[in-house]
Design goal:
It comes from Kyrpidia spormannii. Helices cover 24% and strands 29% of the residues. The protein is an alpha+beta fold.
């Protein structure tokens, strides 16, 4: 199973090179990454409208292509960053000062946020929980896959910013951690 940080690094490396497609196999898991091409197929869909049955099958692939581009396009910015004033702007949290020792764990993908591995299980972490780089803090479900999100830092959870079952976006803050 590939870790989110490994996938993110592969995407970053692809962005920095002329490689268009990459396939990696490790420990029985296979990963295929392909750079998004220009949106040339989209205009080709418009002229084909003589029958209603022909329009519906052509509409579905366009949506899927858009979703893939949304997930892979913003791979360049580092999604987990120390707290900064720019992150507080528009957050609605009402905080006027930013604590430099706070670290924000953000969602590495679009999906559904879950605090626990199962509906009847205890949450992975709570406010006050101690975490390290390998601590699983939540799950983000994307396309029926449960992606375990690790803290990638060492410290104490001071704030949980997403609700259980909430749809989260790429880069959306999920937790704030006071660094050790």
């Amino acid at each position: 199973m590939f870790r989110v940080t490994e996938i993110r690094e592969l995407i970053r490396l692809m962005d920095e090179t002329s490689v268009v497609e990459l396939e990696v196999e490790s420990e029985g898991a296979r990963l295929s990454i392909r750079k998004a091409q220009a949106a040339a197929p989209i205009p080709a869909v418009a002229p084909a409208a003589p029958a209603a049955s022909a329009v519906l099958p052509q509409a579905a692939p366009v949506e899927k292509t858009t979703a893939i581009q949304e997930q892979t396009a913003p791979a360049t910015p580092e999604p987990r960053t120390p707290e900064s004033k720019s992150e507080e702007t528009g957050n609605g949290g009402g905080k006027s000062e930013v604590d430099a020792s706070l670290y924000t764990i953000t969602s590495p993908m679009v999906g559904t946020f879950y605090r626990a591995p199962a509906p009847d299980a205890d949450p992975y972490v709570q406010v006050g929980s101690r975490v390290d780089e390998k601590t699983i803090v939540c799950i983000v479900e994307a396309m029926k896959l449960m992606n375990e999100i690790e803290a990638d830092c060492r410290g104490e959870i001071v704030e949980i910013l997403a609700e259980n079952g909430q749809l989260v976006e790429f880069g959306q803050p999920l937790f704030r951690v006071r660094l050790d």
